[in-house]
Amino acid sequence: MKPETSQQRIKWIFFDIGGVLRDESEYNIWRKDILLSQAKKIKPKISEEDFEDVVKQASKMHGSLRQNILEILTGDKELAEKIKNEIHAQGTKILQNMPIIPNALEVIKKLSKNYSLGIISNYSSDIKNVLRQAGLFGHFKVLGISEDYGLHKPDPAFFKAVLKDAKAKPEESAMIDDNIERSLDVAKQLGITTVFFNSTNRQDIPEDIVDFTICSLPDLLNIF
């Protein structure tokens, strides 16, 4: 008898929302522009080249990603929190208008025939209305929305709580995310199969963390 592959063991597939089910490219451009412009007021020599490395570092930290980025860029925690609060409403408004990724419903429908699907995502509860409007909501058996759980990535407790509610074993689960440091690193440590949605053509993909890499949602159908 041939040994079971990791894909054959999978019973649950968990999805991030932003950058995986929802196209947040416009929001990411806004975030980069506004955070860099604010940081340069304090440290004018900060460059765009520094930004992506800072995002990776900030993603490993608990709390607001925007605030973490600003704190690293400026070295001033209180100022970072102040700016984060000032731009919160603008960021929320931009996120509200981000579209669902094309083919998302088609791919989710196909996967739901053979797997149980869930969400593990840092989002406010109102994202459920977006999922409903897109026809996606009913295909997920467990909705791990951070605001509902009072937990956020990269806290392992968030992943564990959602897995517990799903009655899903880590070794029988996969996680699809576009952020390696904030999500997939933790998932891998818990024994979850990791799939990196590489929508930004990232080159430095750590092989010890990422099991599979995709560049579009339909690529998932070649794995599962």
Give a quick set of tags describing it.
2 domains, 6-stranded parallel beta sheet, Rossmann fold, globular, 46% helix, single chain
Which helices and strands occur, and which strands form pairs?
Blueprint: H1 6-9, E1 12-15, H2 25-40, H3 48-59, H4 65-74, H5 77-96, H6 104-112, E2 116-121, H7 127-133, E3 142-145, H8 146-149, H9 156-166, E4 173-177, H10 180-189, E5 193-197, E6 212-214
Parallel strand pairs: 1-2, 1-4, 2-3, 4-5, 5-6
Helix pairs in contact: 2-4, 2-5, 3-4, 4-5
Helix content: 40-55%
The radius of gyration over CA amounts to: 18 Å
CATH third-level topology of the largest domain: Rossmann fold
Q: What class would the helix/strand composition place it in?
A: alpha/beta
The mean pLDDT is 94
| Architecture (CATH level 2) name of the largest domain | 3-Layer(aba) Sandwich
Number of E strands = 6
User: What percentage of the residues does DSSP assign to strands (E)?
Assistant: 5-15%
Uncertain regions: pLDDT < 50 for 5+ in a row?
none
By CATH reckoning, the class of the largest domain would read Alpha Beta
CATH superfamily of the largest domain: HAD superfamily/HAD-like
Number of helices: 10
Please give the largest β-sheet.
6 strands, parallel
Spatially, the strands of the biggest sheet line up as: 3-2-1-4-5-6
What's the domain count? 2
State the order of secondary-structure elements, H for helix, E for strand. HEHHHHHEHEHHEHEE
